[in-house]
Amino acid sequence: MARTSDIEKAAEVLRAGGLVALPTETVYGLGADAENPAAVSRIFQVKGRPPTHPLIVHIGGADQLADWVAEVPATARLLAEHFWPGPLTLVLRRGPRVPLEATGGLETVAVRVPDHPAALALLEAFGGGVTAPSANRFGSVSPTTADHVRAELGEAVDFVLDGGPCGVGVESTIVDVTGETPAILRPGGVTREDLEAVLDRPLDVPATSHVRVPGQHPSHYAPSARVVLVEPEQIAAEAQLAQEQGHQVGVLLPSTLAGTPVKAHAVVPVPASMAGYARELYGFLRELDQRGCDLIIASLPPEEGLGLAIANRLRRAAGPR
Ligand code: TXA
Ligand code: MG
């Protein structure tokens, strides 16, 4: 747990218009005072992110939601009650407190209450909202430890609040509740099944893209190595072939193939539980980059529960660059 003095320091940096990397239960965020347009704009510079790509506003509790949005529909209230604090982001109509810099010019705003003690302590000490995208350069893999943030953004961040490794490991589920029917824009830490149980209705999930978001391109959450998805039974043959062609191959070996001999530069056995896999996924991708792999071979897990978010990130990592 982060020290009280670190929380105070982080809150001061936010008040002064600086950038703070903060831990959340999903991934580390690159935070700024949501109401300071200059600070918010710096996030885009540091990330190399197009200014039309909207950010999430993090708040300290569901009771603050009405301060940030034009209205709180019943569906939003229901979902907030069930899943906050937690890995769920709600897209709602923007309230006047949210500058257009934070929403990429959209009249909607994404809001969430993170479930991490250090993030909640910081939000309380700061008192306002914190806009934060994942604390990585645009298009690359999200950081799940403070070391990932330091390695990737270094001096560009004014303060890194270290809250240990993230427990969920993939980003929040984004649900648009501005329309008549709620829509999942990005699968994530809250499962589709859990949302459907609470809403008592089936939900559609976009296959690879986060629709309705401007400036999307398919490759995202991507390591430097090229990612190739194959059926599990083809992994060993594909890895061997690519090695013979001169690639440094990294393999994410599904738990169903545990113990199978695979000829590759680096083989990472994947946890059997989807929660374990989600927690480690981005760390594995970073590790394979670091070990010098130029090609990563992986398979999609079953697309249910957290497997849906894992498959979504793997597909996008494998997308055209
Ligand atoms: O778990 C998370 O959500 C992490 C932690 C730090 O909270 N944050 C995160 O932020 O993943 P970012 O910026 O990497 O991804 C936010 C996504 C983007 O795909 C963005 O397009 C979408 O949220 N988004 C933000 N505002 C939106 C809006 N008004 N309408 C639709 N999508 C929106
Ligand atoms: Mg991101």
UniProtKB/TrEMBL annotation:
It is found in: Cytoplasm. Pfam families: Sua5_C, Sua5_yciO_yrdC. L-threonine binds at T26, H58, R112, A132, S142, S172. It is an enzyme of class 2 (transferase). One of its GO terms (biological process) is regulation of translational fidelity. It catalyses: L-threonine + hydrogencarbonate + ATP = L-threonylcarbamoyladenylate + diphosphate + H2O. ATP binds at R49, T108, S134, R186, Y221. Transmembrane segments: none annotated. Its EC number is 2.7.7.87. It comes from the Bacteria. GO terms for molecular function: ATP binding; double-stranded RNA binding; L-threonylcarbamoyladenylate synthase; tRNA binding. One of its GO terms (cellular component) is cytoplasm. Belongs to the SUA5 family. PANTHER family: SUA5 (PTHR17490), THREONYLCARBAMOYL-AMP SYNTHASE (PTHR17490:SF16). Required for the formation of a threonylcarbamoyl group on adenosine at position 37 (t(6)A37) in tRNAs that read codons beginning with adenine. This is Threonylcarbamoyl-AMP synthase. It comes from Streptomyces actuosus.
